[in-house]
Each structure stands twice: as structure tokens, then as C-alpha cells.
Design goal:
The chain is mainly alpha-helical. The protein has two domains: 110 residues, Orthogonal Bundle (Cytochrome Bc1 Complex, Chain D, domain 2), CATH 1.10.760; 81 residues, Cytochrome Bc1 Complex, Chain D, domain 2 (Orthogonal Bundle), CATH 1.10.760. The protein is 48% helix and 0% strand. The protein is built from ten helices and no strands.
Length: 227
């Protein structure tokens, strides 16, 4: 098992200058995230959020947002705006025939939730302490670090750290926390963006389309070890 990557021990690779299209993608990502983030009309009710987490979500995501297996994502410590947006993405938008994220289980759980419910449970999970996963493959950690911190210039792939921050914590409202997430889950989402089964972020779909299977696996494993 590989030790967690920390800012004090990791060798930071400076990202190469991003090409114009990469800068454009990052600008679009920021603008889209800000436009799509939904602030609650009133302060979230954490007690109601905890009740929902324990009665509806805990079986898959854990009462505290730390899943025991990689089949479901860790939600603890995630930005509430991001969690809310993902719940909303499992519901078809007005006039649409299918949701932006296709997942039969999550569609079933999210449909009955009101807007207030989603804000409440998102705020509750955001307040829980993440128990991070770890990187496991020592043979791919160098490639994963290169992609995360420096991108892939020849493929016009920007550094993941440009949006998700050097330690994987992301930036509230704009970009989600990825550090400490299960490698298998992160990889599955990259594959979903590339295949088009996940349609709620066009920028990530563009980036994922430029990554090979090996590159996705390497960077996902590296991300799991970020702290």
C-alpha cells in the first residue's frame, strides 16, 4: 500500500503552460460551475439532513459519508453545492426525457427528494469528516502524479490540480473534492464522461475523451492518496 501523498512530501511538478484551448476549457468550467451551483433559499436543516442520511442514504454511502467499499463514492467532506448539483442531475430536467446522470439506483432515491431535502442532506454530508482512501499501485504513481500535477501537454490535457487544487480538496462551489476518493469510483466517472453516459459536465467529457484507460487508472489511483 502506498502512503498518502502530502503537500510536504510530494514532489510538485509544475504544470506546463496550457494551450489556448485548455485555458478556454478552464474558463468555461469555472463559469458553468458558478452558474449551475444552487444556493439554498434558507439555511439547511442539518438535523433533517442527518435523518435523511441515516434512513435513505446510509446503506450505500454510510451514515457519515464514508463508504466501506469502492462501489459507492465517499460523500464526507464534499462541497455541499456539488452534492446538491449531483442529486439534481439524477432527475430529468423540465422537458428532458432522461437525466444528465444515468443511474437507476440514484434516480430512484433522488426523485422523491424535494429541493430542501437535497440541500439538507448535502449540507449534512459536507460537514462530516472524510476517511480517505489510499493509492495502491506503486508502478503507476509517477504517471498519476504527472497527469494530476502537470497534465499531458501533447494531448492538451490540463493538470487536474488546476481545478481540483494540489491536495485534491477542490474549490467550494466551483470544483469538487477528489482527494481521498476511491480510485475505482474516480476511474468509473472518467469512463462515464468519456462514453457520454454522464452528461452533466461538458468540460470533463472533453478532457476524459483524451485519456487512455491506463492514464485514467493511474491518475485515479494517485488521487486516492491525496490529502
Amino acid at each position: 500500500m502506498i502512503r498518502a501523498v502530502t503537500m510536504t512530501t510530494a514532489k510538485i511538478l509544475r504544470p506546463p503552460f496550457l494551450r489556448p484551448i485548455s485555458l478556454f476549457l478552464l474558463t468555461v468550467a469555472c463559469s458553468a460551475a458558478l452558474a449551475e451551483a444552487s444556493a439554498p433559499a434558507k439555511k439547511p436543516d442539518l438535523a433533517k439532513g442527518a435523518n435523511l442520511a441515516n434512513t435513505v442514504c446510509a446503506a450505500c454511502h454510510g451514515a457519515d459519508g464514508n463508504t466501506i467499499g469502492s462501489g459507492f463514492p465517499k460523500l464526507a467532506g464534499q462541497h455541499p453545492e456539488y452534492l446538491y448539483k449531483q442529486l439534481a442531475s439524477f432527475k430529468p430536467k423540465p422537458g428532458a426525457t432522461e437525466p444528465e446522470r444515468a443511474n437507476g439506483i440514484m434516480m430512484g432515491f433522488s426523485m422523491p427528494l424535494s429541493d430542501e431535502d437535497m440541500h439538507n442532506v448535502a449540507a449534512y454530508y459536507a460537514g462530516q469528516k472524510l476517511k480517505p482512501a489510499t493509492a495502491r499501485n506503486k508502478d503507476t504513481v509517477a504517471l498519476g502524479q504527472k497527469i494530476y500535477r502537470g497534465g499531458i501537454a501533447e494531448k492538451n490535457v490540463p493538470a487536474c490540480s488546476s481545478c481540483h487544487s494540489p491536495d485534491g480538496a477542490g474549490m467550494p462551489i466551483q470544483y469538487p473534492r477528489v482527494g481521498g476518493q476511491w480510485a475505482e469510483y474516480t476511474e468509473a466517472q472518467l469512463v462515464a464522461f468519456r462514453s457520454g453516459t454522464r452528461k452533466n459536465n461538458s468540460v470533463m467529457a472533453t478532457i476524459a475523451a483524451r485519456l487512455s484507460d491506463a492514464e485514467m487508472k493511474a491518475v485515479s489511483d494517485y488521487i486516492a492518496g491525496l490529502r
